[in-house]
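Weekly modeling sync, notes
Attendees: S.R. (lead), two postdocs, one rotation student

Agenda item 3: backlog of single-chain predictions. S.R. asked that every request posted to the team notebook include the full sequence so nobody has to chase files. The rotation student volunteered to paste the first one in as an example of the format we agreed on. Action items at the bottom.

Example entry:
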Amino acid sequence: GLAQVPALPTGPWEYRNVVLTRGAITRSFRFDLSVKGREPRGCLCAEILLAATRITVVNVHLGLAWGERRAQIDGLLGPSGPVAAAVGPLGLGGDFNDWPPGPTSRLLGRAFLDAAWPSLDFAATFPAGWPIFRLDRLYCTPELVPTGYEVHRSKPARGASDHLPIVATFEGVDVEQIVDLEADLVIAGGLGFTPPDAVTQM
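Predicted structure, as returned to the notebook:
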């Protein structure tokens, strides 16, 4: 399946958030994260059916100013935001324009697990040619258990974007049972899930 939403209109073109998956996208929508006086921002929310389990994926690109990011996080986590309305396990990933232990990462760390913790791979992702800042991260709810994580540092990855992608492996845990769901996730300014029979990339 394919889902895409405008993230930042610019001239005749526009930046987009995209999800590609071999699973079934049962619902997708854009959630507006724009802050008055700043560039328009939005995130892509997608509900995906993978191995009989519904997963919610939220792909973000937060603003450059701390006050802007704080308002965007409040929108994401608020009662009318996409996190509160999420169906099943949730993965939140993208370019947060803030690096740990910055205020954005501290706020998100109260609500989610940083997928890098089990591997302790806190490598920087930006700029790709000489990474200094860990701007790109992946967070998840407890139903997704990280079993592997790495920043992909290959030459093709460095040439494809000014941000390095993140590759993570998850085990999906259902309320009733552990389901057969091992998911590889890829982040390159976005987020993706790759279960055995489904590939999702944002």
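Discussion: group reviewed the output briefly. The chain has three helices and twelve strands.
Action items: rotation student to repeat for the remaining queue; S.R. to check formatting next week.
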